[in-house]
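Lab notebook, bench 4. We co-purified these components, and the gel suggests they stay together. Before we commit to crystallization screens, I want a quick structural picture of the whole thing.
Request: model the full complex, all chains together.
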Amino acid sequence: MREKKAMTQIDRRTEKLTTALRRAGVRITRQRAALLSVLAEAEDHPEAIELQRRAEAVVPGISLSTVYRTLTELEHQGVILRHQFEGTPARFEHSEARHHDHMIDVETGEVIEFANDRIEALQAEIAEAMGYEIVHHRLELYVRRKRAPGDPD
Amino acid sequence: MREKKAMTQIDRRTEKLTTALRRAGVRITRQRAALLSVLAEAEDHPEAIELQRRAEAVVPGISLSTVYRTLTELEHQGVILRHQFEGTPARFEHSEARHHDHMIDVETGEVIEFANDRIEALQAEIAEAMGYEIVHHRLELYVRRKRAPGDPD
DNA sequence: CTCTAGTTGCAAGTGATTTGCATTTGCCTT
DNA sequence: AAGGCAAATGCAAATCACTTGCAACTAGAG
Ligand SMILES: [Mn+2]
Ligand SMILES: [Mn+2]
Ligand SMILES: [Zn+2]
Ligand SMILES: [Zn+2]
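Here is the predicted assembly.
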């Protein structure tokens, strides 16, 4: 039942994360390998504790310290992103996808991604006009689902 | 030496903050009065501890808990804003000025304000297009001063 | 001036994340 | 295959920025 040929997108992501760690000269331990594939598989923006839960399926005893330590290293290598949304612990995602910003539904906590080139361009212009260049930025829209006229509660 | 007529801008701001607290049904204590005028006078984005330091000029023993408690109340009344920039404790400012966003010089920590209607409009459009309305948002540009060609180090 | 509910300062508690340290463990070197 | 050792792990304790419990105060209505 083991596929030999098909390298899935997730495998590729896992490899990229692994490579980043090797490049940093760190060892690929069981716990790290588990965490890397959990990150590669994630479609959402999980917190450290949730990543630990998911990794425990493979490495039962993995500690939260190890999760945090590895996340910090991966962040330094630039292969994952750490987001600090309002009112929650930090959330993480791999940085494979191209840049995007986030909307957070204040009612449900759901995180929705979006990208807009005009906004990105405007930001750069503004900074430029004031004599600065952007190192990085953070744009978060805290939103509420809009009721269409005549919608039920 | 006491001016009777001239109500300065700062006096007006202090009054607005005071009114907000009274409206909330809370008492104007010595410590609160001090904090309110410190906030009204502030031209920058001070942290709670810095506000405490400034208030101590008037009320020597004012505790940090009281500062935090009052700041939280003022925030709930909508007369001050709490900003959570990366890597620092929360910073505060009165909300007299119209809406603006912030650039943070990653080298110096300096906070620079800016406002751009096109960005604001675009944000609203994006949310709208996805069926949401914006409750509030957060746009922070982490920047570095740009070296003009031929500038000294 | 009195009375009392709101407020204060202080100490202790929280929640997320980091760190110290003794014990394992990857993995390069024989 | 075995050895050696720096790096990594797990656990407990520490940190940081606030928040909260509580007994002693005090603003301010009557
Ligand atoms: Mn995302
Ligand atoms: Mn500002
Ligand atoms: Zn962006
Ligand atoms: Zn804005």
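Chain A touches chain B through 32 residues (CB under 8 Å). Worth comparing against the SEC data before the next meeting. The longest strand of chain A covers residues 132-145.
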